[in-house]
Amino acid sequence: MPKELPVIQRGAGAAAAPPVFEKIGIVGLGLIGGSIALASRELWPTSLVIAVDNKDVLETAMRLHAIDVAADDLIVLAEADLVVLAAPVAQNVALLSELDEHVRTPAVITDVGSTKRAIAAAAARLPERFTFVGGHPLAGAARGGLEYARPDLFKGRPWLLTPVTGSRVPAEARTTAARAEAGNLQAGVDKVSRFVEALGAIPKITTAGAHDRLVAYLSHLPQFAASALMQVVGEHVAEDGLALAGRGLADTTRLASSPADIWKDIAATNADEVGAALDALIDVLKDLRKDLTSGDRLTEVFEEAARWREALPQYEGKREEGRGKR
User: Fold this and answer.
1) Is residue 302 part of a domain?
2) Which backbone phi and psi does 220 adopt, to 5 degrees?
3) pLDDT at residue 3 above 60?
4) Same domain assignment for residues 197 and 216
5) What is the predicted pLDDT for the residue at 4?
6) How confident is the model over 216-260, as pLDDT tens digits?
7) Are 60 and 78 members of one domain?
8) Which are the contacts of 47, defined by CB distance < 8 A and separation ≥ 6?
9) Quick one: 38 and 129 in the same domain?
10) Buried b (16+ CB within 10 A) or exposed e, 122-155
11) 309: buried, middle or exposed (CB in 10 Å: 19+, 13-18, 0-12)?
12) Which one, out of 36, 161, 250, 308, has a CA that is 20 to 30 A from the CA of 49?
């Protein structure tokens, strides 16, 4: 039980549109969870934003007017109709097993973790009153924490959704129950899609396995490469050398400020896909190492890399165009 009663700080005014969820519970007020809270407060002043985190984080969130209800115990989520798990990946998986005890009413459960297979397997065992729609906003910043949260973080960014169907239906009742479960799941996907669209993001449906393969290259490999590069450079040139560095090194290693504790969970729950991505990068680096004097392979890699790099702004533009048509 919480030691103190939650502090309620209701928003004022009328929302521009009816809220997708009346009671939004967020477990973990870091960069992503905090940004969801801030955006929700702006969009739906009549909704209740409920947060679970450590006391010092909650006090900061209250000062920022990011939340309405604050507690360090999951019991405060009793009547939430949306629960967003925004803690580190392994903690999100563990939290799933506690929801049955604390969330008393039917609810949609989602998460914002960078890997999906582990939590999808755990979510398949949730009670029937819960509908799990895994989620991963492809948005972020070089540094985490509530102090870096902002309500426009998700604007124009993809938000991958990985719905999970349960395995709790007995074989003899599977036909009827499966239809009902499919209907509940689709309703949940529709509501989460509307929710993330309102936050400014672009929802995209995929499977947990496809998600983990994709982000191993789009997100996880760049992080490991940037951190490894910064570690090698720093170790060999030290602070005196870094004083001479240009913008190129800073731009290339921006991600190297990311905290290791979050990435340990990501690596552990996506080791096979991240390993394959690292092997692919290592193979190209080995090619470049062998080809330094002739430059033939170097030319191939640089030309192909430049072609893909030039394509990146085009895809960014298409996302913005897609948002404008919604």
Assistant:
1) no
2) -70, -45
3) no
4) no
5) 47
6) 999 999 999 999 999 999 999 999 999 999 999 999 999 999 889
7) yes
8) 11, 15, 19, 21, 22, 23, 24, 40
9) yes
10) bbeebeeebbbbbbbbbbbbeebebeebebebbb
11) exposed
12) 161
Helix ranges (H only) for the chain are 31-43, 55-63, 89-96, 99-102, 117-123, 174-198, 208-215, 221-242, 247-252, 260-269, 271-290, 296-324
In a domain, 314, yes or no: no
- Both 244 and 108 in a single domain? no
Tell me: pLDDT of 41 over 90.
Answer: yes
User: Greatest CA span in the chain, whole angstroms?
Assistant: 71
Predicted local distance difference test score (pLDDT) of residue 17: 77
Number of domain units in the chain: 2
Q: Is position 215 within any domain?
A: yes
Reading the block at residue 326, the tokens are 């919604």
* pLDDT score of 12: 44
Q: Pairing relation of β-strands 82-85 and 48-52?
A: unpaired
Q: Give the residue carrying structure tokens 């450079």.
A: 233
Range of the domain at 31: 23-206
Task: Indicate if 163 and 236 belong to the same structural domain.
Answer: no
CA 281 – CA 85 distance, rounded (Å): 32
**Could you say which of 206, 240, 273 is where a domain stops?**
206
Kindly report whether the global pTM for this prediction surpasses the value 0.90.
no
Kindly state whether residue 216 falls inside one of the protein's structural domains. Answer: yes
- pLDDT tens string 67-123: 999 999 999 999 999 999 999 999 999 999 999 999 999 999 999 999 999 999 999
The whole-number pLDDT of residue 107 equals 97
pLDDT tens across 135-165, in order?
A: 999 997 767 899 999 999 999 999 999 998 6
- 149 and 52 share one domain: yes
pLDDT tens per residue, range 172-181 = 545 645 555 5
Q: Using CA atoms, how far apart are residues 161 and 207, in angstroms rounded to an integer?
A: 8
CA–CA separation, 61 and 43 (whole Å): 17
CATH code of residue 165: 3.40.50.720
